[in-house]
Write a structure and sequence with these properties.
By secondary structure, this protein is an alpha+beta fold. It has three domains: 1-75; 78-107, no CATH class; 115-303, Sortase (Sortase, Chain: A), CATH 2.40.260.10. The protein is built from four helices and twelve strands.
Length: 306
């Protein structure tokens, strides 16, 4: 009995050892699979990280290229302003004789801008901000969506007039488009106008149309849905007022632009009439496929004689 018992115990122990060995093998397989999966996931994560870094670098470089492009274009309009050299005669009286190098002044040159891009129709700037760009007008509203004034691809694109504005900003009602860039370039600065204090610090735009230079004053701003509706700011039938009925419609439309303003603009208090030249700035607001639009309405003020 003792030998049989020992044999049985040995057999049972052998079976248990085999079972344990199988379990160890299974665990080793699981660990191996886990390590493979972990290494694969790590590889995927590294790839995703590298792609994100690459994408961010591409966006950053794209922003830099656009900024440099527009800065170089703006710089070409700086000219030296001679400073009178003062001298005294024998009696000690002050006289002027010749000139010495003075400061530089930004002087608009429509002809030079037109030579660079025949679609150029003007320039817009908001003093004290980085908004300082040429205005283009293409054959449609896609041409300069992601194309700079020099014809290169860029996320920032260009500031452009709606192709339906046939009078190149000399009509009663015109629209300009520009991207709301994350770095504040193009029309990115407009989002700051949601704060009334910022708007009051920057109430006047300088707009060059052809050879002329005008001051444009902010009088209303608000957010709208991306699609066009009957009361949307994307109206083109008022560029030319060729009937009394259209004048009445336009008068009501102008009043609606005032009523919709997110706050009462205090920096321009004159009455807006159908005789005014209105320039509407449109840019994205928010994110997503159906992101809304921010609208800033400007009214033409005085012409500046440079």
């Amino acid at each position: 009995m003792t030998q049989k018992t020992e044999q049985i115990e040995a057999d049972v122990l052998g079976v248990l050892n085999e079972v344990e060995e199988e379990k160890r093998k299974e665990r080793r397989k699981q660990v191996a699979v886990y390590n493979h999966v972990r290494r694969f996931l790590l590889f995927v994560m590294v790839c995703i990280f590298c792609y994100c870094v690459y994408s961010l670098a591409e966006v950053y470089l794209d922003y830099q290229r656009s900024n440099n492009t527009y800065k170089e274009i703006s710089n070409m309009f700086y000219v030296d302003v001679p400073k009178a050299e003062q001298q005294t005669d024998e009696s000690g009286a002050t006289i002027q004789a010749g000139s010495i190098s003075g400061s530089q002044e930004w002087v608009w040159n429509f002809e030079a801008m037109k030579k660079m891009n025949e679609d150029a129709i003007g320039w817009i700037s908001l003093p004290g901000t980085q908004l300082n760009y040429p205005i283009l007008q293409g054959v449609d509203n896609d041409e300069y969506l992601h194309t700079t004034v020099t014809g290169e691809y860029a996320l920032a694109g260009a500031i452009f007039a709606d192709y339906r504005n046939s009078l190149a900003l000399e009509g009663n009602y015109s629209i300009l488009y520009g991207h709301n860039m994350n770095n504040g370039s193009m029309f990115g600065v407009l989002r700051k106008m949601k704060e009334q204090a910022f708007q009051e610090e920057h109430p006047v735009f300088d707009v060059y149309i052809g050879e002329q230079h005008y001051r444009y004053y902010v009088y209303s701003l608000y957010i709208v849905e991306p699609y066009e509706t009957a009361d949307s700011p994307y109206q083109f039938q008022y560029e030319v007022l060729d009937s009394e009925e259209k004048e009445k419609e336009y008068e009501a439309f102008l009043q609606s632009t005032i009523d919709r303003s997110m706050y009462k603009v205090q920096t321009y208090t004159k009455e807006i009439t159908v005789d005014d030249k209105i320039l509407t700035l449109s840019t994205c607001s928010g994110s997503g496929e159906n992101k809304k639009r921010m609208i800033v309405h400007l009214v033409r003020g005085e012409e500046v004689i440079d």
